[in-house]
Design goal:
Chains A, B: It comes from Hydrocarboniclastica marina. Two copies of one chain form a homodimer. Chain A has about 325 residues and is of the alpha/beta class. Chain A folds into two domains: about 280 residues, 4-Layer Sandwich (Metallo-beta-lactamase, Chain A), CATH 3.60.15.10; about 40 residues, no CATH class. Chain A has ten helices and 21 strands. In chain A, the strands form five sheets. Chain A has an eight-stranded mixed sheet. The first copy, chain A, has a seven-stranded mixed sheet with strand order 8-9-10-15-16-17-19, with helices on one face. In chain A, α1 links the parallel β4 and β5. In chain A, α9 packs parallel to α10. At the A-B interface, α2 and α3 of A face α2 and α3 of B.
Chain lengths: ~325, ~325
């Protein structure tokens, strides 16, 4: 399971950070998932190994432009790239209105079907073979959601001793049982997959927050998660100066929460454009890291555009590899 | 008068060319004009000297996404950058619908006024102190327009010999006459500015085409122009293979037209993403230049992202300077 950050700036792009988007890849196929889609996301994707044809679903946390203005261009380019497969867009209701208005005004027809799913609908849940996705409502100026990705395809292990005890001979039947299928033998016995297989490890779980001023809302979702991706728009000092109206989190707020739930890995993102890289003047994004480390003793990272994190089956997180080049990086 | 290409790719961005946008700067202030605004235009602007606060007006040639999907993000960022001044958007009618739908759906309020002007309205003409802008309807799949920029502030020269003959003494009156003001002298005589000033050179004129399969429509507009910026999406061979449906121009078509009107300078742009830079495989954009040179003997350029052309008062065009860096350049 890996995550590639395609944008890590809040509100507006900077020369080195685009606005929010995150690619999550999991499963044997090259299928992947996009969480948020700020303007320029399709440009960033050009510099990764991901293809718009293999994209399985898009999840939008909320309607603010820095999280969704890249959708129309990405959808149009997917069609020009030859996509024919239905594309799921899980998003707040107004996103559907927006996309339909833009495609109509720009005389744009897609060669594939868009399947909109309202994330606010009761009992929302989306899944495919590789992942299942649930949501947590957050606290922001507009309805906003965190997406919880849990791997859906943890391989079942055959309990071969038990199969042999029961006289089920090795062969195609074993393969069908491992895939979860119940099998009726030639002698008429029904062999249940669950009785002859076991899941040997916990499924990996990643929580991707949207904009949010109350991380505590993610307590339950994070209990079984290994990794939380959450905004930390500024330090507490800046947050106090800005006031509560924007409804964003400080590094301190997120770090205290992560420590309190014993989260193994925390990646902060969505930094105010006032934070610059080391070379430029003004406040440094490293101040956010310093503040977060004061409260959180787990594995902390500050996201950068094109950083890719691998969450391994042993629940360790690989230090980020940088993919791509150029584009919004200096 | 200078032009900076912010995007030179047709349909979709590539790693080295963004979708269409062009910055035109003229006048003493740092005010400038944007023609078309494909997705990622605000990112490109970050790498130039232009500011969203000093932008005077946006001109959109037609509704296709690669010419306008960057508008919502650019408008929002202009507000976040502190813009308060009214911004003119000259565009086909559906652009207004689109922008209003997107701003509404994304809960985005701008701290300045948007003044939409329907480019299709009869007798359209826009001007400020520095330029006047007229249009030419083109031939494309949707209503599409070329914008003709003529400098509006060619300095008047005082005819000092004639002023002295008439006994108008040097002083503040001369300055007012030079600015175009008619002045009543203390002795009651009305002195007309036009009778005591002259314009010593032709105003510079640049024609910026939109997508168009019939360059001949620009014949009249180009008669008094020094520079035409026009799409040449592919070579004639590719155009023949693609067929007439997309309604684009080949290099040959535009070059023949430019030669027939004796145009001094021609800059081609909007290249199909099938054309790559020298380093990559596939057809080369240089094939478009070779084809155009076969028919056009004037000063030919193929636009690149961040190339800046200066049109001088003697009507010469400076070889392009490259501004900016990084971004969509490899």
């Amino acid at each position: 399971m890996d995550l590639t950050f395609l944008g890590t700036s809040a509100g507006t792009p900077t020369k080195v950070r685009n606005v929010t988007a995150l690619a999550l890849q999991h499963g044997n196929s090259r299928g992947w998932y996009l969480i948020d889609c700020g303007e320029g996301t399709q440009h960033q994707i050009l510099r990764t190994r991901h293809s718009l044809v293999r994209l399985r679903a898009i999840f939008i946390t909320h309607v603010h432009g820095d999280h969704c203005y890249g959708l129309p261009g990405l959808l149009a380019s997917a069609s020009m790239a030859g996509r024919k497969e239905k594309l799921y867009i899980v998003a707040p209701g107004p996103i559907k209105t927006m996309i339909e208005a833009v495609l109509l005004a720009s005389d744009t027809r897609l060669d594939y079907e868009l399947a909109f799913i309202d994330v606010g609908a009761l009992g929302f849940r989306w899944e495919d073979q590789a992942v299942r996705v649930t949501t947590v409502p957050l606290s922001h100026r507009v309805p906003c959601y965190a997406y919880v990705f849990t791997e859906n395809d943890v391989p079942k292990q055959l309990l071969t001793d038990r199969l042999e005890e029961s006289g089920v001979e090795a062969g195609p039947v074993w393969g069908r049982l491992q895939k979860g299928e119940n099998v009726t033998l030639e002698d008429g016995r029904l062999i249940l997959s669950d009785e002859y297989t076991a899941i040997r490890r916990r499924p990996r779980r990643v929580v991707v927050g949207g904009d949010n001023d109350n991380p505590d809302l993610l307590r339950e979702a994070c209990a079984e998660a290994q990794l939380l991706v959450h905004e930390a728009t500024y330090t507490q000092e800046v947050a106090d100066r800005v006031g509560p109206a924007p409804q964003h989190s400080s590094a301190a707020l997120v770090a205290r929460f992560a420590e309190s739930v014993g989260l193994p890995h925390l990646v902060l993102t969505h930094f105010s454009s006032r934070y610059q890289m080391m070379s430029a003047g003004g406040p440094q994004v490293s101040e956010i890291a310093v503040e977060a480390r004061r409260y959180y003793r787990g594995n902390l990272h500050l996201a950068e555009d094109f950083a890719t994190y691998f969450l391994n089956t042993d629940m360790s997180l690989n230090a980020p590899a940088m993919v791509g080049s150029g584009s919004f990086r200096s």
